[in-house]
Protein 1
Amino acid sequence: MTPAPHPQVTEIFRRIGVALPSTDGAGLLVRSRSPIDGAELARLPVIPRDAMASSVQRLKGAQPAWARLPAPQRGELLRQYGLLLRRHKAALGQLVTLETGKILQEGLGEVQEMIDICDYAVGLSRQLFGLVIASERPEHKMLETWHPFGICGVISAFNFPVAVWAWNAALALVCGNAVVWKPSQKTPLCAVAVHGLLRQVLEASAPPFGDVSQLWLGEAEEGQALVEHPDIRLVSATGSTAMGRAVGQACARQFKRAILELGGNNAAVVCASADLDLALRAMVFAAVGTAGQRCTSLRRAFIHEAVYDPLVERLKQAYASVAIGDPREAGTLVGPLIDGRAGEAMQAALAECRALGNAVTGGEHVLQDRFPGACYVRPALVETGEQHAVMLRETFAPILYLCRFSDLDEAIALNNAARHGLSSCIFTDSLREAERFTSHLGSDCGIANVNIGTSGAEIGGAFGGEKDTGGGRESGSDAWKSYMRRATNTVNYGRTLPLAQGIRFDL
Ligand code: UN1
């Protein structure tokens, strides 16, 4: 007998009107645990192989009619989904908090990010436009047109269990694609909830389109099956660089399109002219928010020697007083790490730093009496004289490495020395420094900010980065083009057949 779900889970699913999948007769199960106290939240069925095959058949069956539906009508369904998310924002935010341990403000923020991308997709549904290009031939025109790509797969991570799927799914759907989602095995409940709401909207449409969106619960194996399935032509994967490398290689073997949003090792450069009050607040939010478990979390800070001592002193004060605790309680700023393994990785990184002679402030386990089954840590500051190997590794925990610099180009080089290339920022009141950092001579990251932190991007911009971050772009700007097939059409409206490049070929 599978134990009943946690009462809070039952209550949230009752409020949103989504049924939990039955485990009767199920084979393998995934267990959802709350990082808040380690309690089991629910057990959910892993998708069996035969169910994957029939799921792909449903996607294939639904895709052509979905692609034929005019884009603004697809957008209308996303508008309705956005309305449903607005109605259930509080309950969904609580579920995100319960299953990931992020503070309620951030849980709600994540649901808002879904709402924002739905709004964006509605507008986009009337803006999927191409180009008219000048032809070198008389009485010819060239066009660039965009068409649905096919079945898209989405693999998402535990730290943004709903928003990142929504970025991908909203765009892929509005572009006329069917979508299958393999969420993190650590956050299956969030997936069941938000996917269940989307299915309500799709099934209520006339004709019903429920089959265009499918959910596969499981672990790495199920993700691999998605990546390998020949009918799934695009895979958008968010997670570790190791996972992304495997996904990218598997996609390349089948010439599939891969959109990879992998890790980050994001840095801030704090110049002598910086507004230190602002820099402090921005850095603390970016470094300790989501307990340092965002791909955009601030992990490295290069601070000009003229302001290093006062800023580091203030960072230490902020780190000593930041409220760590139950993420459901108002006032908490730092919740638990996702699990004990994350805590061990953090301790291992700090031990290596100590062995190198670095000064470590914070980093200790806390609240073990109150939450023996969970992993709460005080965020850590590490003062280091040089950028060493530990610092160039992405440890998914709240560790901020601090280093002095004297010359901006040196700080830029330190920023760019990371293998990842996701996010970066500069704090300065100098136009020259800000422009240099955001120019091609500056940060090599996909995101380079001025006087704000590395995390908390809005959906309107393209999100992603280079190098070990994987090169994909999701969310705003023209990221939608990744979910469409580009066609170049040359049209001859004359009665002669001039050839391009001036070639003569007279029959
Ligand atoms: C992630 O951590 O995978 O910019 C996504 C941010 C969020 C998204 C993070 N809007 O921090």
Note: The radius of gyration is 24 Å.
Protein 2
Amino acid sequence: MSSMTRPLTVTVTGAAGQIGYALLFRIASGQMFGHDTPVRLRLLEIPQAVRAAEGTAMELEDCAFPLLADVEVTDDVDVAFEDANVAMLVGARPRGAGMERADLLQANGGIFGPQGAAIAANAASDARVVVVGNPANTNALIAASHAEGVPAERFTALTRLDHNRAVAQLANETDATVGSVSGITIWGNHSATQYPDLSHATVGDRPARELVEESWVRDEFIPRVAKRGAEIIEVRGASSAASAANAAIDHVRDWVLGTPGDAWTSAAVVSDGSYGVPEGLISSFPVTSNGGDWKIVPDLDIDAFSRERIDASVAELVAERDAVRELGLLRER
Ligand code: NAD
Ligand code: LMR
């Protein structure tokens, strides 16, 4: 029998939502930290959805997961983030009919500012945060700015779903297995401006660019990956949930346990100025983890096409940052 380590506390916000439902059972069954690490779950919901979250907590109990040490449901942010080692910020305000972009940013600022402050006040000293709720990069920026005393590097946003989508599309096109694809990068924002980049990708031991047409890359691969979220909404009638939960688990697992070998993945992390991305923005990069800290993969060659695409997505992030700053939603630290 393997020896058990101490339980890790995971806070999931928006726990009664569809991503929450696809996420919690996988965390509790050991799919995020492995089969020798017990977990305590703290589920945060708004008051109207607390009862539904309690129903999910009952089902978690009914699974009798050996690794599940405890589940707590609350609508109080301070209780929710108490001792959290990992915070998965899924709950967000969706765009409603007639809502302008500024209204959406404002509504989400009202959620992610207080959550950032509550993380700083209550979470464990090693807390790591991934924002899933959209607009994910800018919500992460807002939360980080309110988390006084917490290193900005601990706040990230999810672009692993985009990364996984890109891997799957390239594998399909080249009739290869997903396991043989590496070196894909998602740059920029988790939005339609993102740049899925396969210029450094390999399939088996061959450069991807030798295996696919340039026209396929520009006219099919890039738009298909960048607009996949909207396509899922159209076809499924609801936004991606199981694949988003799966990507969030991949993100946290690789961050905490480390990326395997010398393979990189994609995550939106705070920029240190690499690749011309303004310092402090939370933008997607190629990253590795040593088991605790993301590191941006250095010194990749960026061709003119990639430069233009990265700059376009980063410009959107700058515009979002400036908009939330103007709305008073960012605390300068
Ligand atoms: P959902 O509407 O099913 O669930 C969201 C839940 O969040 C609801 O139960 C709601 O009550 C809760 N919530 C709202 N405000 C909250 C708050 N202040 N505190 C705690 N909980 C709160 O939505 P979903 O399908 O689970 O998606 C959640 C978010 O994830 C959306 O913003 C969606 O756009 C985003 N998303 C991101 C990615 C990504 O790759 N980054 C992928 C898919 C979806
Ligand atoms: C996705 O990429 O599937 C989502 O971010 C789409 C959305 O707007 O919720």
Note: Residues 180 and 204 are 5 Å apart (CA to CA).
